[in-house]
Amino acid sequence: MKCVTFDSSDKLIEDLKGGTIDAMVVQDPFKMGFEAVKTLVDKLNGVASPKQIDLPARLVKKEDLDKPDVHELLYPDVKKYMAQ
What SS3 state is found at 5? Predict the structure, then answer.
C-alpha cells in the first residue's frame, strides 16, 4: 500500500525521508498569497488581471528532496517575497 499526504510539515518531511510515507502533494502557499495580493493591487490600480492564475501542486518524493526547487518550495525564503 502507498501513502501520499497533502501539503507538508517538518514531521511529514521527516516521514518522507524515513519511508513512512511515499510522497507529498505540495502547494506553494507563499506564492498563492503573493499572487492574490498582487492581483488585488493591480485591480485597485486599474490594471487588468487574468481571470485565472494556475498555481499547480507538486508531487514530491524522497528522491526529490535534494532538488533546489523542491527545497525552496518546502522551506520558502520569506525575505524574497517581502522585497517585491
Answer: strand
State pLDDT tens for residues 44-72: 999 998 889 998 899 999 999 999 999 98
d(CA 55, CA 5): 18
Q: What's the CATH code of the domain at 49?
A: 3.40.50.2300
CB atoms within 10 A of CB 58: 15
Classify the C-alpha dihedral 55-39-71-26 as positive or negative. Answer: negative
Q: Which domain holds residue 77?
A: 4-82
| Total number of domains constituting the chain | 1
Counting Cα atoms < 13 Å in the Cβ hemisphere of 72 gives 7
What whole-number distance in Å separates Cα of residue 84 and Cα of residue 81?
6
Predicted model pTM: 0.75
C-alpha closest to that of 5 among 27, 25, 19: 25
